[in-house]
């Protein structure tokens, strides 16, 4: 048997080619696996970005809603305070459904012996306090209803 360098070189070349193809197959499988993992991570990242963008939009919407109803509440309180000042200054009068009590001295004229209807100072103050609380409650309820419609029911 004759030793052939050509056959040995061809055999070594064949072994190297098989080894290189297996190595290429291994790295190709790893590359495919890495690409699919990267695709999955990118999808999750996009979902997180969308979620963050949605949360930021909702925060802006809630802040605008809060500002709107806070302004309405401040306006209502300012109106009530102005009304209270006007009543105290005599520019406006509260309309009451009241009966007049008799004054202490009887009169000989044909007029009734009644004093003018008037709330006591405490009742007048309580009226404005109650009116303010009603306004606050109604504005808070309206704001919460709007919040539920715009944010919770989406």
Summarize the structure.
76% of the residues lie in helices and 0% in strands.
Query: What would the principal axes of the Cα set say about the shape?
Result: rod-shaped
Largest sheet: none
> Count the strands?
0
Structural class designation: mainly alpha
Helix content: over 70%
Q: What's the domain count? A: 1
Helix count from the secondary structure assignment? 2
Rg value: 43 Å
Indicate the proportion of strand residues: under 5%
Separation of the first and last Cα atoms: 87 Å
In the predicted model, the low-confidence regions spanning at least 5 consecutive residues are: none
Order of helices and strands: HH
* Average pLDDT taken over every residue: 86
Report on the architecture of this protein.
- With 154 residues, this protein is mainly α.
- The chain has 2 helices and no strands.
- The radius of gyration is 43 Å and the shape is rod-shaped.
- It starts with a helix and ends with a helix.
- InterPro entries: I-spanin.
- Pfam families: Phage_lysis.
Labels describing this entry:
154 residues; mainly alpha; 0% strand; rod-shaped; Lysis protein; coiled coil; I-spanin
């Amino acid at each position: 048997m004759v030793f052939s360098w050509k056959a040995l070189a061809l055999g070594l070349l064949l072994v190297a080619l098989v080894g290189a193809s297996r190595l290429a197959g291994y790295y190709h499988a790893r590359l495919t696996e890495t690409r699919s993992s990267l695709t999955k991570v990118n999808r999750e990242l996009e979902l997180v970005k969308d979620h963050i963008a949605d949360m930021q939009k909702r925060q802006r919407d809630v802040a605008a809603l809060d500002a709107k109803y806070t302004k309405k509440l401040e306006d209502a309180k300012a109106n009530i305070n102005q009304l209270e000042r006007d009543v105290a200054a005599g520019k406006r009068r509260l309309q009451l459904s009241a009966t007049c009590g008799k004054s202490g001295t009887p009169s000989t004229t044909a007029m009734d012996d009644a004093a003018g209807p008037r709330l006591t100072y405490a009742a007048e103050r309580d009226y404005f306090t109650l009116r303010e609380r009603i306004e606050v409650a109604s504005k808070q309820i309206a704001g919460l209803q709007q919040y539920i419609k715009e944010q919770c029911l989406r």
